[in-house]
Specification:
Elements (H helix, E strand, L loop, with lengths): L3 E5 L3 E6 L15 H11 L7 E2 L8 E7 L2 H12 L4 E9 L6 E11 L4 E5 L7 E13 L2 E8 L6 H8 L21 E9 L6 E5 L19
Parallel strand pairs: 4-10
Antiparallel strand pairs: 1-2, 2-4, 3-4, 5-9, 5-10, 6-7, 6-8, 8-9, 10-11
């Protein structure tokens, strides 16, 4: 299934972005989430302003927020910076053994030329602190389903931190993951934010749609 609108009101969209679709491509000929939403608004005869709040990597599936006006974009961007927007991810990793739960604290440097992040010593110039927590939701053989909560939002944070513990995400060849020929197994399945008008907390969740997640698709694995 392709990108689709999960929820919308006067100010915001909550959208499902499939793996493989860019949030906003530099190539004008390439379809992306930004242009999809602008085209949708144009068809309705609406103002075509779109402000993407959280951007998922192109090979990652999951929930994104987009504002319909500049005021909402500014409010939600502040929520993002202040960690008031909560995001949870499912990831599948391949390893002999994985601790039941952990809080990972690392320092990352972005390598723009290679478009990847590296785990480094905290005294490394430009290093930024990255923190996430995970718990195991299921496993079979040496495949493990992790439920991940982000405390910071760094470039390729989940992919780099897990790879730094020798448990790269399944299919994530950039970080040493076992190649499958399918998108990497990372899904932003939950997003929670404060409504910019009412201050009321809103929460949205989905089940992953990636083929490899089906191995964990029972009545318990994707429960919240």
């Amino acid at each position: 299934m392709g990108a689709r609108i999960i929820y919308e009101d006067e100010d915001l969209y909550v959208i499902y972005k499939p793996a493989g679709l860019a949030a906003e491509s530099k190539d004008p000929s390439e379809e992306d989430l930004f242009s999809m939403l602008r085209n949708e608004r144009a068809k309705r005869g609406e103002d075509t302003y779109i402000g993407l709040i959280n951007r998922l990597d192109q090979p990652v599936e999951g929930l994104c927020l987009a504002a319909k006006n500049k005021r909402t974009a500014e409010i939600m961007s502040r929520e993002l910076v202040d960690h008031k927007i909560k995001k949870n991810y499912y990831a599948i990793v391949k390893k002999d053994n994985v601790p039941e739960k952990e809080r990972l604290v690392d320092y990352l440097v972005k390598d723009s030329q290679k478009s990847r992040a590296r785990v480094v010593d905290e005294n490394t110039p430009r290093a930024k602190r990255a923190v996430l927590s995970y718990k195991v939701k299921g496993h079979f053989d040496d495949y493990w389903l992790l439920d991940i909560s982000l405390e910071t939002g760094r470039f390729h944070q989940i992919r780099a931190q897990l790879a730094g513990r020798n448990m790269p995400i399944l299919g994530d060849r950039k970080y040493g993951g076992f190649p499958t020929g399918r998108p990497l197994c990372l899904c932003a399945y939950r997003i929670c934010y404060l409504d910019p008008e009412t201050g009321v907390e809103k929460e949205f969740c989905i089940d992953p749609e990636g083929e490899d997640f089906k191995d964990f698709n029972d009545e318990n694995s994707f429960a919240g």
